[in-house]
Amino acid sequence: MALIKSISGIRGTIGGKPGDTLSPLDVVRFTAAYGTWLMQHSKNRKVVLGRDGRISGEMVQRLVISTLNALGIDVVDLGLSTTPTVEMAVVFEKAAGGIILTASHNPKEWNALKLLNEKGEFISGEDGAKVLDIASKDNYTFAPVDKLGSYTVNNTALQQHIDAVVNYPLVDAATIKKAKFKIVLDAINSSGAFAVPELLKALGVKDITVLNAEVNGKFAHNPEPLPEHLTELCNEVNKQQADLGIAVDPDVDRLCFVCEDGSLFGEEYTLVAVADYVLSQRKGNTVSNMSSTRALKDVTIKHGGTYTPSAVGEVNVVNKMKAVHAVIGGEGNGGIIVPDLHYGRDALIGIALFLTHLAKEKKSAKQLRNTYPNYFMSKNKIELHDGFDLKKIFDHIKKKYKSHPINTEDGLKIEFESDWVHLRSSNTEPIIRIYAESNFETTAANVATKLMKDIKEVM
Fold first, then answer.
1. How far apart are CA 30 and CA 48, in angstroms?
2. One domain for residues 406 and 339
3. 415 and 356 in one domain?
4. Whether 443 and 349 share a structural domain
5. I want to staple 448 with a disulfide (CB 3.0 to 4.6 A). Which of 144, 231, 362, 436 is the partner?
6. Is the Cβ–Cβ distance between 285 and 327 less than 8 Å?
7. Of 336, 369, 402, which marks where a domain is finished?
8. Is there a single domain that holds both residue 184 and residue 221?
9. List of E strands, 66-196
10. Which residue numbers delimit the Alpha-D-phosphohexomutase C-terminal domain (predicted)?
């Protein structure tokens, strides 16, 4: 059981004791703290709310609505929705902020409150610290009975989102329609089951098969779109002789593809392919977090742009993108950020741009993948137990590899001759992530394994 407070929001498991998990009391506490923070710097009293398809979603939703209303805040409820839809709806509704109820890629027992500002972007680390401080002191005051907030439902936000994607200048729905793609979607029993097919239909795709289509939060497999979790999708693409497989996570901000032969396009290469297309249409710079593949840097240089790495975490990627005026960016976990649509990871715009690229290139997904540099990444994690000393672990690693270039902006990234490894504590789980990349699959795995042994020496 866990409760994690970070720049990624308030995330925890459902059930257990208050303070140790995301209990009803904790939901109320952190919602009240966020609402109080919002009212301290804005006269706007409107907040947009949406949730993914998790089992606990409706329960948490009711708690959040009642708490915000009790503070005197008006709630616009999107109900079942996607993270990027809520982000865009904050702007559509001219709201003061937004809350998304989703634990993204975490298993079904998890849920979370992701907190947005008036731009529909995740609140900064500094603002997040203020929210946590308010919560720690229970420093909030509820409204008298005649000043309670209102409650309204918005059923049009997803359509507004889809319209914005279809009308985005670099999306070519006519060319996609002409390609007559046959697509299989793994919707992982959540919001992608309705959001992605609606988008595909709007793009002119008619032949769509949806796996795990019932929105019940009982995820058919681990919801993180990693290779070991996508065997059903790969097999179905092959069986149906489809042109493409699509997998999204429960809140539809991460995206990966399966090629026509049932092989994985590669989660890391979602951003690479989309960036390749965007940069072919408009010159500019790119950003991804430092745990992402170097292939994005290669593609950026090919198009005459500059690549800049950022610390892990969407808010960090967004801040870096703004600083370097990036035209495209995101994360190697399949998160696409298109800044002139909105500064948030968005699988829907990612799908539309990828399909446009595929249709214009007149290549199969496998042929397109073969046009990109071939790097291999090994993604691993070590669970942390109560009382762990992260500084001690990292100091040990720094000392051991002091002769190599080390970046400490976000955990430790160690550069070797043609390989790298990145160690960092997760913002969303009590783990250390160990990512390694190399030109050779075995080398990447060996580098990661060696660092995992080094870590365990001091745990």
1. 16
2. no
3. no
4. no
5. 436
6. yes
7. 369
8. yes
9. 74-80, 97-101, 110-116, 151-153, 182-186
10. 398-449
**What pTM was computed for the model?**
0.93
pLDDT in tens, 370-423: 999 999 999 899 988 776 788 888 999 999 999 999 999 999 999 998 899 999
Do residues 410 and 331 both lie within one domain? no
Number of domains in the chain: 3
CATH of the domain at 176: 3.40.120.10
d(CA 356, CA 349): 11
Residue 325 — left, alpha, or beta (φ > 0 → left; ψ -120 to 50 → alpha)? left
CA-wise closest residue to 69 among 33, 120, 32: 32
Domain that holds residue 280: 161-369
The pair of three-digit structure tokens given for residue 270, joined into one six-digit string: 């979602």
Please check whether residue 116 is in contact with residue 83, taking contact to mean a CB–CB distance below 8 angstroms: no
Domain of residue 425, CATH code:
3.30.310.50
For 187-223, what is each residue's pLDDT tens digit?
999 999 999 999 999 999 999 999 999 999 999 999 9
For 448, the token pair is 């990661």
Contact by Cβ (8 Å): 53, 191: yes
What totals of helices (H) and strands (E) does the chain contain, helices first?
15, 20
Query: CA nearest 271: which of 248, 293, 238, 301?
Result: 293
219 and 274 part of one domain: yes
Same domain flag for 38 and 140: yes
- Please check whether residues 220 and 120 belong to one and the same domain: no
Rounded to whole angstroms, how far apart are CA atoms 276 and 286?
10
C-alpha closest to that of 248 among 265, 216, 275, 225: 225
Residue 284 CA from chain centroid, whole number: 23
- List residues bridging with 184 in a β-sheet: 209, 245
The pLDDT assigned to 7 comes to: 61
Amino acid at 162: I
